Amino acid sequence: MATENKNLSEYDKNTIPNAKDFRFGIVVSEWNDTITEGLYNGAFDALVDCDVPAQQIIRWNVPGSFELIYGAKKMLQTQNVDAVIVIGCVIQGETKHFDFVCEGVTQGIKDLNVQTDIPVIFCVLTDNNMQQSIDRSGGVHGNKGTEAAIAAIKMAYIRQQASIAHAYNQPLLTSGALQIEDSPRKIENE
Ligand SMILES: Nc1c(NC[C@H](O)[C@H](O)[C@H](O)CO)[nH]c(=O)[nH]c1=O
Ligand SMILES: CC(=O)[C@@H](O)COP(=O)(O)O
User: Fold this and answer.
1) Is the dihedral of CA 6, 69, 56, 44 positive or negative?
2) Most exposed residue of 41, 72, 117, 154, measured as fewest CB within 10 angstroms of its CB?
């Protein structure tokens, strides 16, 4: 399904885990900052709407999307966060530089997800023109920052539940609930 068939800002709070205790890092590229600021606002507002206290959201800026890789790496290495969102906007120019930046960022963020324990959410627009970026950062197609924030909450929850399940040697149901009645989460809440 292409973005044009889905509004990026739509989410059902009933399907989103409790995020009030999670801490989020957001690394924002300064290239195309009118777009990346819109993406950041979408992400920040969605996190707060899902009960994440503003003081649990850390923002760092980097020069361009290629620097999102290093920024996210240092963020997760040095800050106590449950997920990182990287925000960028890459727009096709006259040369092949677009291809290399997009591929490099994609592979770099993928590598962080493979090599570290903290989920890193890919909120990088890779558009043919500015209008496409406008449409996806609060325009007619919604806001990819909002989508990224919801993904960050869901992935932070999976990380949390998986670590609990592992600690208690319990299987984790696809719903995220633990297998048995006296599950660690029940024990944890007692
Ligand atoms: N053209 C765009 C860039 N280019 C800059 C690179 O991301 C990088 O900062 C530079 O190559 C130095 O390492 N970045 C974007 O985020 N968006 C663009 O459209
Ligand atoms: C993605 C880019 O780096 C690109 O926008 C730069 O523009 P150009 O390819 O015309 O140098």
Assistant:
1) negative
2) 117
Instruction: Take residue 178 and report the two structure tokens written for it.
Output: 């633990």
13: which 2 tokens?
């709070």
Query: DSSP code of 5?
Result: G
SS3 160: helix
What single string gives the DSSP state of each residue in 44-100?
HHHHHHTT--GGGEEEEEESSGGGHHHHHHHHHHHS--SEEEEEEEEE--SSTHHHH
pLDDT in tens, 46-92: 999 999 999 999 999 999 999 999 999 999 999 999 999 999 999 99
pTM: 0.91
Quickly name the fold that domain 17-189 has.
Rossmann fold (3.40.50)
Number of other residues whose CB lies within 10 A of the CB of residue 13: 10
Say how far apart CA 47 and CA 54 lie, in whole Å: 8
Ligand 1 pocket test target in 29, 31, 37 with most atoms within 8 Å of CB: 31
Calculate how far, in angstroms, residue 31's C-alpha sits from the geometric centre of ligand 1: 6
Q: Tokens standing for 162?
A: 């998986």
Q: 134: helix, coil or strand?
A: helix
Question: What is the residue extent of each domain of the chain?
Answer: 17-189
